[in-house]
Amino acid sequence: MTIDILQLCPLTPFLEAELARRYRVHRHFDRQEKSALAAIGAEKIRGVVTGGHIGLPTDLANALPNLEIVAVNGVGYDKVDLEQAKRRNVRVSNTPDVLTDDVADLAIGLILALARELPRADAFVRSGNWPSGDFGLATRVSGRRYGIFGLGRIGQAIARRLEGFSAHISYSARSKRDVPYLFCETICELAAECDVLIIAAAASSETRHIVNAEVLDALGPRGTLVNVARGSLIDEPALVTALLDGRLGAAALDVFEDEPRVPSALFDMQNVVLAPHIGSATRETRRAMADLVLANLDAHFAGMPLPTPVV
Ligand code: 8YV
């Protein structure tokens, strides 16, 4: 019997091909009309495949009466209503662990790019200005004070990498961990304690806009903000204002609240490095994520336990 699943965002060619080999896949990307779902036949849909940044909008979930499983191609499931899933006996899976290293690597890459001004260095050489001018000086990376907000798998992987930079590491998390880093009770304390504040916590109603003007002021005009988590943790207008006013030194951002839309004021700032949500976007990791998505769907429809269940 063919099983119908709904695909909510573009996926890698490998994952799309493997899904199509196993299931009848209906693409339903965002901003599509409700009528598109009616044309597919909402009652046929038994599974949804979606990205961590897309999740499953509640109104769409409500429109799928026979939904059994939501397979998230990402570690973050903040955009899936877990309470509703539990109530409806809908399973939810994600892709933990396989992307931890990549996201931590990107955090370090963003820190290096910003402090050593790599985008400007690249542009300087390409523009042919080197023979006639001096690039100038950037900022040191090693030996500085780094604060990590969220010490889960990704936060810990970032900390391990920073140890290689002889960094002074502090963190703030829901609870104190058995780690050799300084624990700060609040994100404000953490921001005051470090030169570079790295956001690596999950998005939730408690962490929404937790990086507000007060936190940015605690980080200060020589401080740097790095976000590899979710855009919703940052009050973006407050961030733009702090950067424009010189109350915050610099920012490196891989995620945005309304991505792919990015506050345009950031485009002109030299003290900002921007990336298009590429934390897990390597060939190797996207393949491992695809394998987990397929393994969860296949297990579910074979009546087996899910390899990486959330619900
Ligand atoms: C991806 C992510 O961008 O893991 C997550 O939570 O946001 C990222 O890995 C996305 O989920 C890819 O579909």
From TrEMBL:
InterPro entries: D-isomer_2-hydroxyacid_DH (IPR050223), D-isomer_2_OHA_DH_cat_dom (IPR006139), D-isomer_DH_NAD-bd (IPR006140), NAD(P)-bd_dom_sf (IPR036291). SUPFAM superfamilies: Formate/glycerate dehydrogenase catalytic domain-like, NAD(P)-binding Rossmann-fold domains. It comes from Sinorhizobium numidicum. Residues 41-310 form the D-isomer specific 2-hydroxyacid dehydrogenase catalytic domain. Keywords: NAD, Oxidoreductase. This is 2-hydroxyacid dehydrogenase. Belongs to the D-isomer specific 2-hydroxyacid dehydrogenase family. It comes from the Bacteria. Residues 108-279 form the D-isomer specific 2-hydroxyacid dehydrogenase NAD-binding domain. The lineage of its organism: Bacteria, Pseudomonadati, Pseudomonadota, Alphaproteobacteria, Hyphomicrobiales.
